[in-house]
Amino acid sequence: MTKLFQISILVAIPIILIVILNYVVDLPPIAVPLNGKINEVQKQSLSILLESNKLLISFSIAIAGALAFFIREHHTTNNKFTGMQMLVLSLCGVSCLMTIFFGQLLFSLIVEMLANDFINILSSGVVFSIRAQYGCLLLAVSSLIVFVYMSFSTDSHNEVFGRESPNNDN
């Protein structure tokens, strides 16, 4: 990738996130007022929503840790990544970060609703955050699986045919 392309991606990601925060995700104009009390159904639904949010964020952090492990292992064997492997690694890392971002966004929406004394779990902002968080996590998992497959299929192919790995600097 060229430097200009890398810089444009680094500039585009925060701009996209700001657009999502300001224009896509919004609090609902009509909601059920709480009057300072939450009934049991609302309490349970909030509890399930926040626990699943924490679980998805934890999975994302675990995937980022696995990604770091593979990068470190690849680095200690003095191998170089191919262009496709770098693309898949970048996709996995960005997906992990986006999962955490949408989880934090969901949490802040719920806190803002409770602070304004209303709740609407089915608002467009909450539903969008849930779907985006789950989609980004699926993308991170699938790209990590593709990276592992690419890494091990190249290494095992070279071992079977007795070839030097094209990634070695020897």
Q: What is the topology, as strand order, of the major beta sheet? A: 1-2
Whole-Å distance between the termini?
Answer: 25 Å
The major sheet is characterized as: 2 strands, antiparallel
As a percent range, the share of helical residues equals over 70%
Alpha-beta classification: mainly alpha
Query: Averaging pLDDT over every residue, what do you get?
Result: 80
Number of strands: 2
Q: What would the principal axes of the Cα set say about the shape?
A: elongated
Low-confidence stretches: none
Determine the number of helices (DSSP H or I, runs of at least 4 residues): 4
Rounded to an integer in angstroms, the radius of gyration calculated over CA atoms is 21 Å
Question: H/E series, N to C?
Answer: HEHHEH
Question: Strand fraction band?
Answer: under 5%
What does this structure look like?
The chain has 170 residues and is an all-alpha fold. It has a domain at 41-154. It has four helices and two strands; from the N terminus they run H-E-H-H-E-H. It has helices spanning 3-24, 40-76, 83-115, 124-160, and strands at 32-33, 118-119. A two-stranded antiparallel sheet has the order 1-2. Helix 2 runs parallel beside helix 4 (124-160) and helix 3 runs antiparallel to helix 4. The two termini are 25 Å apart. The mean pLDDT is 80.
